[in-house]
# Entry
Amino acid sequence: MTIDEIMRAAPVIPVLVIDDAARARPVAEALVAGGLRVLEVTLRTPAALDVIAEMAKVEGAIVGAGTVLNPADLAASVAVGARFIVSPGLTEPLGKAAVASGVPYLPGVATAADIMRGLDLGLDRFKFFPAMAAGGLPALKALAAPFGGVRFCPTGGIAQTTASEWLAEPSVLCVGGSWLVVRGIPDAAAIRAAAALASG
# Structure
């Protein structure tokens, strides 16, 4: 799959911080059952790589790694089954490594210079991050205007109640959401219900 296809697979990409790999599969199964197949597991916990490996076994799940900061994170994530990677920002070393690897890549951007740096690397799909702190929807609209072919996945501060406003913007293909799964012991029924609501 291309990064464009991944972004169009569902309107919301759950952004997951999971501390225990034993909880990975039930969370993934509940999200997929609710209609959200694309899952971003952030590399923010010691268990993250094991979580990716477990979630990748769930039928229908498209599991990627988030909070990828450098080429070493990229390599480790792909080695355990990540099918795409997401980074909070865009650096030349990571950008070049991602392009060379061929793995679908969604780098974080917050400025026109970030977008231009990505375009120079042949990238035109970006995470707008941190979406609310970087100026919210007005900032994204202003950034999108000069870059007609660029599409975004805003992430950071978006909630179920505001997601539809972002998704109505033509340059937005999907949003990243951390509201779907809270840290701790997962409630599969609640996760499935939240996913069903988010998937429309």
Notes: The two ends are 22 Å apart (CA to CA). The mean pLDDT is 97. The longest strand covers residues 12-16.
